[in-house]
Design brief:
Layout: H1 8-17, H2 20-29, E1 33-36, H3 37-44, H4 63-73, E2 82-84, E3 88-91, H5 93-107
Antiparallel strand pairs: 1-3, 2-3
């Protein structure tokens, strides 16, 4: 064996023995992406296609006000991927990737 070569089966077995694979799977089942309301808005506001009548300033002092913003950026089929806490937005891993992709597209447009 060469010290600079990895055997896929050995690496997979080692990751499994150390519990790394299980930890990643557990994290992905939960809501690993977490943002304060204002931080979430500042990061993802570029996704919204503004028109001249759309308000550009949002007040996130209440959960209901944040809900209005989320309704504009979250597709109906992805609503279960997001949970709103008292001060934070929690997202499942795959949904956070989706939002980051949408953000990238909006920034590069």
């Amino acid at each position: 064996k060469n010290s600079l070569q990895f055997e896929e089966d050995d690496v997979r077995r080692q990751l499994s023995c150390f519990g790394i694979i299980e930890a990643i799977q557990t994290k992905n089942l939960g809501y690993p992406a977490r943002y304060e309301f204002e931080e979430f808005y500042n990061r993802y506001k570029v996704i919204i296609k503004y028109n001249k009548n759309s308000p550009r300033i949002y007040d996130f002092s209440t959960k209901e006000k944040l809900d209005n913003f989320l309704l504009r950026i979250i597709p109906e089929d992805k609503k279960e991927e997001v949970q709103i806490g008292r001060t934070k937005v929690f997202m499942r891993y795959n949904f956070s990737i989706y939002l980051e992709t949408q953000r990238s597209l909006a920034l590069n447009d």
